[in-house]
Amino acid sequence: MLLCPRLKHRWFFTSARPGDLHTVLDMAKVADTILFLLDPLEGWDSTGDYCLSCLFAQGLPTYTLAVQGVSGFPLKKQTDVRKKLSKAVEKRFPDDKLLLLDTQQEAGMLLRQLANQKQRHLAFRDRHAYLFAHAADFVPSEENNLVGTLKISGYVRGQALNVNSLLHIIGHGDFQMKQIDAPMDPFPLNPRVIKSPKDPGMAMEICATDAVADMEEDLKVLMKADPDRQESLQTEVIPDPMEGEQTWPTEEELSEANDLLKESSKVVKKVPKGTSSYQAEWILDEDGESGGEGDEYDDIEHEDFMEEESQDEGSEKEEEEECETVTIGESVRDDLYDEKVDEEAEGKMLEKYKQERLEEMFPDEVDTPRDVAARIRFQKYRGLKSFRTSPWDPKENLPQDYARIFQFQNFINTRRRIFKEIEEKEVEGAEVGWYVTLHVSEVPVSVVEHFKRGAPLIAFSLLPHEQKMSVLNMVVSRHPGNTEPVKAKEQLIFHCGFRRFRASPLFSQHTAADKHKFQRFLTADLALVVTVYAPITFPPASVMLFKQNSNGMHSLIATGHLLSVDPDRMVIKRVVLSGHPFKIFTKMAVVRYMFFNREDVLWFKPVELRTKWGRRGHIKEPLGTHGHMKCSFDGKLKSQDTVLMNLYKRVFPKWTYDPYVPEPVPWVKSEISSTVPEMDME
């Protein structure tokens, strides 16, 4: 802690452990200013560049650039060193000045800049109260020594802190507070002068060490939690298995149903005058006996197709044999191959690269299985006349997990109301800048052990509803530094606002429509929406996606922001079945290899067909028992065209939310040798 009454400021300087990604990001969440110390030779290495990428993606607070060690070089080289550093800094910080930090005077200039520079605001923390712990004490409970009350002392920042709100300790979860104490400030900017009771003429200054000693005497309880007004820790809805159960209809409902049935069964007919309703039932419609010629024509055409099919049955079998998939055998392992390479991991990665490449070449195309009927394999799918305009009920066929989550009737209005209350309503509790001690209940002992090992302890207050689970949608773009394929439903590590958790997300297109197509891979050229079950967070909030490597390190794969909290956002998965025209007759064609039995053709007959060259058509009827079908199109097909059928179903994320993220392995730091002179800062 550095006190400077002349500049009317006090600073608390802290540094992250080298290579500790979580510590760097957590401290940047609460820091007022980040002081970047550069190496005089290189500026920063690959580790520093990776760190800067993460900080820019999360949101950078006020920062200052400084360099130590330039004065250690000869005078002739100092100018070249400064030019080289300025050129390196311009890539990341084009409009910022680089300060020297080698002399007492330069240190004073740095403090003056830290005191006078304009503070940048981070949107995700401006509406929360947050606290960086200067001290922590753990009092175990009587029943269990592993759980107890954690006393956190520090300065309140952001907003006023209410004891009835919930507290989120980064990396450890959500907790309730018992009370807030106001001990004496251990680092007062203006030390108070008190008179001795024995000798009134003798005065003494309270310094930091004396203040700590007198803390217990001056302890003052600010607020105690009110059980009636305190926020609940409930994160999920407990589903009622009997909810939605159907009961036997009442007499009124049965009579209404009968009346509707009678009305719908009435048919209006033109009959001679004086005909009774009984006689009218026996009178045929005008269209009753028509259509004979058309049926006869269809029968002849059907026989022609059957004849041609039987004649070319042998050639079909030959073509089927030619189209069989060929499996290429594995290459022989080289004896001189590096034994440190994990062959199993290499094989899995190669398979993912192949799948990603196939998805780019043939989007959503799947092979129709031959051992399972297509009507069973794709029974959850449906056809749509138009993906954009066809209706789809968002409340239809919801999974069981949707009974566990919370949903807002109008999320935007709720968010606006809560933010308005923060701005206009005065919150009772600890004001910004006060030094307080928070009594947090039911905290595991591992939290204070983590703090004693040197990790920072950072707490954020939660807004109403932010502890409850829902469906979060985030817009992300692929980070250019990572090119490995990332498949949907693969476990990733999320940094969303001040939260950190693990989950397996879905990827979908970012469009303005009511239906959004599911993406099987996180593509590099498009911004996609990531959908996942997670606690409610009110935007704006930054989002970072990491992937844990086999060596324990976390790789940044995507960055973005929180879009909405909306369980009704529909992610639609598309599968494309493909067939090949076998015989073409003007606008008619025989298509094969889309299905392999007659029943499947009849089942999917109502679904519209399309081709890669823009033709549209329908299935007329099946031919034979091997899945061949007669189809009609709006134009003549080309022999090299492919017939496609689009099928759709709605997909939901899996409940894989895990709030506890393992600590990443520290980065491999490159060795930089530099001489930094020691200096005293007053």
TrEMBL record:
The UniProt record lists the keyword ATP-binding: no
InterPro entries documented for this protein: AARP2CN, Bms1/Tsr1, BMS1_TSR1_C, G_Bms1/Tsr1_dom
Signal peptide: none
Family membership noted in the UniProt record: Belongs to the TRAFAC class translation factor GTPase superfamily. Bms1-like GTPase family. TSR1 subfamily.
GO biological process: endonucleolytic cleavage of tricistronic rRNA transcript (SSU-rRNA, 5.8S rRNA, LSU-rRNA); maturation of SSU-rRNA from tricistronic rRNA transcript (SSU-rRNA, 5.8S rRNA, LSU-rRNA)
Function in brief: Required during maturation of the 40S ribosomal subunit in the nucleolus.
PROSITE patterns: G_BMS1
Name by which UniProt lists this protein: Pre-rRNA-processing protein TSR1 homolog
Compartments reported by the entry: Nucleus, Nucleolus
GO terms assigned for molecular function: GTP binding; GTPase activity; U3 snoRNA binding
Organism superkingdom: Eukaryota
Keyword annotations of the record: Nucleus, Ribosome biogenesis
UniProt keyword Ribosomal protein present: no
Any one annotated GO CC term: nucleolus
Ranges of biased composition (kind: Acidic residues): 305-324
Upper classification of the organism: Eukaryota, Metazoa, Chordata, Craniata, Vertebrata
Domain Bms1-type G: 1-120
Stretches the record annotates as Disordered: 305-336
